[in-house]
Design brief:
mainly alpha, 264 residues, globular
Length: 264
């Protein structure tokens, strides 16, 4: 009897001093945390590799001798690009679904559920146009168009204009800070994902194959290899710089309500 009392006492004490778990029973809340966790993990892999390429790989490859570079490059980049492109896609897919849930909640609060689709369509269209404008600014060029500052200025102007457009189209008294912040941060992320698949991967898979053939079979690198390498570098560097405002706005969505007084 005494041992039972002690056991009961210990159980109550553990409950009193231990962590209190109370999981939400709301299906939307559970889906949101699953989406955010997936978004975070995949995003860390994606952006981490982007920083690795720009801060480590590109400078290191320039310092290696050609025979060493030929052996290292195909092996390292084949694995890296697999993680890079798929983590980018997963990040954006999870983010799009999470963004839709926020839009649906804001539309519901506005008393017009149809607004969610209108907001999403306007947002998606604006950033697709922005990517179409940024794409040629990343192509290798000579003369004034080859100037890095001119390229960067052009990309910055397009991103700023696209951000202004989506805020104008999506802002309303019922638009939450998460809605508006992700409209910008998520839009920039979409640009980066399109670059990952539309430029970086297209370039790298050719360079990997050509470099492997040059090492294994002695096949000379095609004349366009240098141009493609430059194109891939410019696209990767654009993503590197775009990641900084993207991360700011994604963080501000939940932690810095400067675009709307509605937290979520």
């Amino acid at each position: 009897m005494q041992s039972l009392a002690v056991a009961v006492w210990l159980s109550e004490a553990a409950r009193a001093i231990g962590p209190q778990f109370s999981f939400p029973q709301n299906a939307v809340a559970n889906e949101q945390i699953a989406l955010r966790w997936t978004h975070f993990v995949a995003g860390i892999i994606w952006i981490g590799l982007l920083y690795f390429f720009n801060l480590v790989v590109f400078p290191t490859m320039k310092q290696l001798e050609a025979p060493v570079r030929g052996k290292v490059y195909p092996v390292m980049m084949s694995r890296a690009m697999s993680w890079f492109r798929w983590s980018a896609l997963i990040t954006v897919i999870a983010g799009l679904r999470y963004f839709w849930l926020i839009l649906a909640a804001d539309a519901h609060n506005a008393g017009n559920p149809a607004l969610a689709l209108k907001w999403f369509g306007a947002w998606f269209a604006a950033w697709l146009v922005a990517y179409a404008l940024i794409y040629p600014l990343q192509l290798p060029a000579k003369g004034a168009l080859g100037n890095g500052w001119l390229r960067a200025s052009g990309v910055a102007v397009v991103v700023i204009l696209a951000s202004w457009v989506v805020l104008r189209m999506n802002a309303s008294p019922q638009s939450s800070n998460s809605h508006l912040s992700i409209s910008i941060g998520g839009g920039i992320g979409l640009l980066m994902m399109l670059n990952t698949w539309g430029v970086v991967w297209r370039v790298q898979k050719r360079l990997i194959a050509w470099t492997r053939a040059a090492v294994d079979q002695g096949t000379p690198m095609p004349p366009e290899a240098e141009r493609l390498a430059r194109w891939g570098f410019l696209a990767s560097r654009a993503g590197f710089w775009l990641s900084f405002p993207m991360l700011f706005f994604m963080g501000a969505a939940e932690h810095y309500p400067f675009l709307s007084s509605i937290a979520n």
